[in-house]
Structure formats: C-alpha cells, structure tokens
Design brief:
The structure holds 2 protein chains of 2 kinds.
Chain A lengths: L1 H19 L6 E5 L2 E6 L2 H12 L6 E4 L6 E3 L3 H4 L2
Antiparallel strand pairs in A: 1-2, 1-3
Chain B lengths: L2 H24 L20 E5 L2 H7 L2 E7 L2 H9 L8 E7 L7 E3 H6 L6 E7 L2 E17 L5 E13 L2 H8 L2 E2 L2 E2 L2 E5 L1 H4 L2 E6 L4 E6 L9 E5 L10
Parallel strand pairs in B: 3-10, 4-7
Antiparallel strand pairs in B: 1-12, 2-3, 2-6, 4-10, 5-6, 6-7, 7-13, 8-9, 11-12
Helix pairs in contact in B: 1-2
C-alpha cells in the first residue's frame, strides 16, 4: 500500500502539467515517481506495466484527468450498527 | 410485574429474535454464476429480479450474483512467469444507490492476488479515507424468469472496501449451506444503465437494463449450459 500511495502522490504532482501538455484523457504509467509512458487506453497501460514490471511489480496506471473522489454509503457502522 | 410475567416477556423477546434470525436465513433466492460456455441465439434478456423477501431485504439489502476474476493483462503476466492463476471469486454484490461506482471487497481482491494500481479519496459514511484501486474482470448474471442467461462482463478499475466479509459473517447468513459471500457493491456506474424498482413490501428488486447504453462493455455474452439446459436460478 505504501509504494502505490507514493506513486499516486508522485502522479498527483505531475497531473496538472500533463493536462497542460495536452495529455488529458489519456492514461499514464508511473513507476518510481516518474512517468514511464502515456497510452490512449487503460488496457494498453496495464499490459505495458505487467510486461515491464511483472506480476509482482508495483506501478501506477491512472487516467490523466482531475481527480473525481468517490462515495460509498457502505460502512460497517452504518450497515450494522 | 411479577417474576412470571418478566419470564414470559423474556421468552417472547427471545422467540421474536429467533423468528427474525430464521427469516434472514431462509429468504434469499439463489442466482446462478455467469456461464460463458455456449453462445445462445435468442434475444438477450434485459430484465432481472432479485427476490429476497421483505425481512431479508431490510436486513441485508438487495444482492446480485457476480463473479470477480483475474484481468486478462495479469493473466498474461502470470502465464509468462509460469505462475498459477487464482480461481474466480463468486459471491454477491450489494446493490448500492449510495455508491458512485461498483466496488470490490478487499478480501476478494486479495483472494485473486491483485495488486492496487492507484488510490483515490473516498467519501464514506464515516468521513474521508483512501481506497486502493484494482483492475479486475467483472461478470454479472442477468436472467428474466426461466429465460436465457445473459452474462455482462468487462474489465474495470474499481476501489476496494475493507472488512465487508467480517460484517456479513457476524450475521451468519447462509446460502445453499455456504456462508453468504458479499464481494462488493454494485454502484451507480452500473445503475446508470438500469431502471430499478424497489418493492419493499414484497422484498423484490426489479432491474431493467439498457444494454445499448453500456458502451464500454468488453463482452456481452448470452449463454446457457451445454444442451441448451439453463443453469438453475
């Protein structure tokens, strides 16, 4: 979890610049805090990540867009209080 | 109130609790796991019912049968490395209109040996926390009455929810003699393609899908068991 969190943090810092560079809507592959490659679709980015880093490798694949926080109503306390 | 009355009251309370427990254990109708064994030539079904009974629906919420499995990209990597591919995880998803998107239970992602590929802020009922995101293969069974079975399948990135199995294990609900395995939630990304009717008094949820609107689906397979025999619902 710590490693992917660090990759996410690195991407969060790079995101705005990538959008300014016209990469918005594409998918980024990040490893060790740096952009490895940018792809047109998520499937290709994942395939490249597995091919390069293997099944045990930690790498980030994310859409290049402003973050959209999610909501879930499910929670232990709410469902089974 | 004398001791006899108090005893009577306690027994009544115990009996009511036992009735409630039995209802929780009895009411769930089983759904088939999606099968992709054979192409089916008739028109695919677009409607399906989740029949649980009113009390079970209150206790658990509507549940839809689903399967998570290892995504194709990871299958390719594991195969190239000569490693075993973990078997699919079969169970039920809670239909959750309060969830932005479909989520996987963390224990299901761990059973599949998946690694997170991102994280995202998650605004839950207890404030904000960070969720891991996993790429996973998703299958959902749709069947209208005794008609053919439609398996909707796609590969998607979904956030994980921790501790789901712990919560449901406490309820000790069984299906077909097995503990109910709740493996995630079906959220509004799915429901945006559906018209849903929640019939509380009957304990039934009817879902009608707009398949044409489900653009990014990787596979839509209308399937049946060999010899045209349909899997039991």
């Amino acid at each position: 979890m710590e490693k992917i969190r660090a990759e996410q943090h690195a991407f969060n810092k790079l995101r705005d610049r990538l959008i300014q560079d016209g990469q918005g809507g594409r998918f980024v592959l990040v490893s060790d805090g740096a952009v490895v490659q940018i792809f047109d679709d998520a499937g290709a980015a994942h395939a490249a990540g597995f091919s390069r880093f293997g099944s045990e490798g930690v790498f980030l694949v994310a859409p290049i867009e402003q973050p959209r926080p999610i909501t879930t109503s499910w929670s232990l306390g709410v469902m089974f209080s | 109130m004398n001791e006899k009355d108090r005893q009577k009251k306690r027994e009544k309370k115990r009996a009511a609790k036992e009735r409630q427990r039995k209802k929780l254990h009895q009411g769930i109708e089983t759904h088939p796991a999606p099968s992709t064994s054979q192409a089916w030539t008739v028109k695919p079904p677009t409607r399906f019912q989740i029949v649980m009974g009113p009390d079970v629906m209150v206790g658990l919420g509507p549940m839809a049968a689903a399967v998570w499995s290892v995504p194709s990209q990871r299958v390719a990597a594991l195969t190239a490395e000569g490693k075993a591919i973990p078997p699919p995880v079969t169970g039920h998803l809670l239909v959750d209109t309060g969830a932005t998107g479909t989520c996987i239970a963390l224990h299901a992602a761990e059973q599949l040996g998946l690694k997170p590929h991102a994280t995202t802020p998650n605004h839950g009922a207890h404030g904000e926390h960070e969720s891991q995101i996993f790429l996973v293969h998703f299958s959902l069974a749709i069947r209208d009455g005794n008609g053919p079975l439609l398996a909707i399948e796609r590969e998607m990135s979904v956030p994980a929810i921790p501790d789901m199995q712990l919560a449901y294990a406490k309820l000790q609900v069984q299906m077909n003699g097995q503990p109910l395995n709740v493996i995630g939630v079906l959220g509004r990304d799915f429901l945006r393609h559906a018209r849903m009717t929640y019939d509380g008094p009957r304990g039934i949820v009817e879902i009608e899908m707009n398949l044409a609107g489900m653009g990014p689906l990787r596979h839509v397979v209308v399937a049946a068991e060999p010899q045209g025999r349909l899997p039991p619902v």
